[in-house]
Backbone:
């Protein structure tokens, strides 16, 4: 799923405001440590903006909002309580391989987008 999410964001991020880090990288682990998030067995999507972080459904909604355009309208789902939203997030996460297929690896940055990764 990480591969598809990264490709989705990169394709729609016209202002190149998003940066990416592999959670397993030293930079990724440093960011996780900064927010006291686990650095092992972290099976979620993390979005960091300035000194605040979001995970699971909150991360997804904030990313879509910050992408702008039509995507920002999905942020209306933030009105639902986080446990309710995360229930749907977890269902998608558990069935992602059946629904979206399996990718052998995460996005490997091309020369065009390499500057957008914190390695």
Residues:
């Amino acid at each position: 799923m990480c591969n598809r999410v990264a490709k989705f964001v990169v394709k729609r991020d016209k202002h190149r405001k998003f940066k990416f880090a592999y959670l397993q990288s030293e930079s990724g682990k440093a960011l996780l440590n900064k927010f006291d998030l686990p650095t092992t067995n972290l099976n979620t999507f993390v979005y960091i903006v300035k000194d605040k972080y979001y995970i699971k459904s909150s991360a997804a909604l904030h990313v879509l909002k910050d992408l702008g355009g039509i995507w920002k309208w999905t942020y209306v789902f933030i009105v639902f309580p986080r446990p309710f939203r995360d229930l749907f997030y977890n269902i998608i996460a558990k069935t992602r391989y059946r629904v979206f297929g399996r990718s052998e690896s995460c996005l490997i940055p091309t020369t065009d987008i390499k500057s957008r990764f914190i390695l």
In short: The longest strand covers residues 46-49. Residues 53 and 117 are 18 Å apart (CA to CA).
